[in-house]
């Protein structure tokens, strides 16, 4: 079973007499190791009360609950800041802002149920296939949950996003452990990911929380050679968002390398190679057949939103203009974030599957045209960069780590609230 921490508290352990677990300095709670032997557990030597066993179990539960607690705390704080900034700007707080309207609409009405007034192309002409630019995985899940919740689809969407963000937090922690992080580094990675710029969409009808959760655990599965989980995780991610594009070849390449080099678990690796692309390929094929538009999804997203690959020319031009001519804070910070992501990807050492996924994600964000202002949201998929930053921050003193991580999280939540309450363009 995949767990956040290795099993430190077994039913029989040795501890010093009457020794209590003591917290040490650091971000999150860490525990001193016992020193002198004494059996504890369901044994006669323990005595009738067995008081040490419940204490150990409670300690372990507290440790296991820390990532969830961090994620939910950050989400609650982020929603409060966004609500307060909306109120300060006399703007209603709306869970269905921008693309959230389409993802939520897909869950309620499907691709053919949108008002014609909102199904237009980039030139303002009626285009009924415009909603096909949005992948269906998240909306289908909301639909199923909404039916279980008696038709309360918005509640189902918010609950799904929050739950997925918690699952993503545990996946991020597991990846951080693979990167050599201790408990402090793992919790710092969870906090940075939960409070990243544009992370407000983790509490809205957007697929990013679900995508990050699937990507994180798929990468964990690749590193741990859990091939079935890797293959089906990549397939589900491919049905959720086009930003899963870099994840699919990573799983396929890792599986083929395993088949070439290792003689065990070959069936699982072969299944992963075959299954990983099915989600994305299935939707692309469906969109082409149903719409009848030559070029399918790619032609639809180009006509509807102006998205096509230009190898970064439009992004580079926009960054130059933003940093030299723009007076908009959002544009300047977005340009800075894109540049920082590119530099960090080039300079950051990672296991090759994680690096290829991260580099592919950043390249995908940079290399296409269309709306530039949503690039920070798309960069949420490049979360391994935050894991590396957390590992390095964890080397500082405990209070320093906590202050830096807390400051970065607050800045990210402010950016999220600003984009929702002040910035007038799409996020």
Strand order within the widest sheet?
Answer: 1-2
**Based on CA inertia axes, which overall geometry fits?**
globular
Query: Compute the gyration radius: what is it?
Result: 23 Å
Q: So how many helices? A: 17
Question: What about the largest sheet?
Answer: 2 strands, antiparallel
As residue ranges, the low-confidence spans are 1-49
Number of strands: 2
- Ends: how far apart? 37 Å
The multimeric state of the shown protein is: single chain
Helix-strand string: EEHHHHHHHHHHHHHHHHH
Strand content: under 5%
Class by helix and strand content?
mainly alpha
Mean pLDDT: 81
In helices, the fraction of residues equals: 55-70%
Overall number of domains: 1
Notes on the structure:
By secondary structure, the chain is mainly alpha-helical. It has one domain (59-421). It has 17 helices and two strands. Residues 1-49 have low confidence and may be disordered. The chain crosses the membrane at residues 63-85, 144-173, 227-255, 267-286, 330-347, 354-372, 378-394, 401-423. Residues 42-51 have a biased composition (Basic and acidic residues). It is a multi-pass membrane protein.
Question: In brief, what are we looking at here?
Answer:
The chain is 61% helix and 1% strand.
Write the layout of secondary structure elements.
Elements: E1 13-14, E2 39-40, H1 52-88, H2 99-109, H3 137-148, H4 153-178, H5 183-194, H6 208-223, H7 227-240, H8 247-261, H9 266-275, H10 278-291, H11 296-305, H12 313-324, H13 329-347, H14 352-367, H15 375-378, H16 384-393, H17 398-421
Antiparallel strand pairs: 1-2
């Amino acid at each position: 079973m995949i767990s956040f921490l290795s099993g430190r508290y077994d039913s029989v352990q040795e501890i010093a007499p009457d020794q209590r677990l003591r917290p040490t300095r650091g971000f999150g709670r860490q525990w001193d190791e016992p020193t002198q032997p004494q059996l504890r557990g369901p044994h006669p030597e323990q005595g009738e009360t067995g008081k040490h066993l419940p204490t150990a179990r409670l300690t372990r539960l507290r440790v296991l609950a820390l990532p969830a607690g961090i994620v939910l705390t950050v989400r609650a704080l982020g929603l409060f800041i966004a609500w307060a900034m909306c109120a300060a700007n006399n703007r209603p707080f709306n869970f269905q802002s921008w693309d959230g309207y389409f993802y939520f609409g897909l869950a309620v009405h499907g691709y053919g149920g949108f008002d014609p007034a909102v199904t237009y192309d980039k030139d303002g002409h009626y285009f009924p296939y415009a909603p096909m630019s949005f992948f269906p995985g998240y909306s289908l899940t909301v639909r199923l949950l909404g039916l279980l919740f008696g038709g309360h689809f918005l509640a189902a969407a918010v609950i799904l996003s929050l739950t997925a963000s918690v699952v993503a937090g545990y996946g991020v922690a597991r990846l951080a452990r693979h990167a050599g992080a201790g408990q402090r580094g793992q919790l710092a990675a969870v906090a940075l990911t939960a409070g990243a710029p544009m992370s407000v969409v983790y509490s809205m009808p957007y697929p990013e929380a679900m995508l990050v959760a699937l990507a994180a655990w798929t990468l964990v599965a690749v590193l741990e050679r859990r091939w079935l989980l890797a293959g089906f995780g990549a397939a589900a991610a491919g049905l959720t968002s086009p930003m899963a594009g870099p994840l699919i070849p990573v799983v396929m390449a890792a599986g083929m390398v395993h088949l070439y080099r290792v003689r065990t678990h070959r069936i699982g690796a072969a299944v992963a190679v075959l299954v990983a692309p099915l989600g994305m390929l299935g939707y692309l094929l469906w969109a082409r057949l149903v719409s009848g538009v030559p070029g399918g999804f790619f032609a639809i997203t180009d006509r509807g939103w102006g998205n096509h690959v230009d190898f970064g020319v439009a992004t580079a031009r926009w960054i130059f203009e933003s940093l030299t001519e723009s007076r908009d804070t959002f544009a300047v910070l977005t340009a800075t974030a894109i540049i920082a992501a590119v530099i960090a990807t080039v300079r950051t050492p990672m296991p090759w599957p994680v690096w290829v996924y991260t580099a592919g994600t950043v390249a995908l964000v940079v290399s296409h045209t269309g709306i530039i202002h949503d690039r920070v949201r798309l960069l949420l998929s490049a979360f391994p960069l935050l894991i590396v930053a957390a590992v390095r921050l964890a080397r500082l003193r405990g209070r320093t780590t906590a202050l830096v991580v807390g400051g970065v999280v607050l800045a990210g939540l402010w950016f999220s609230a600003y984009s929702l309450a002040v910035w007038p363009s799409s996020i």
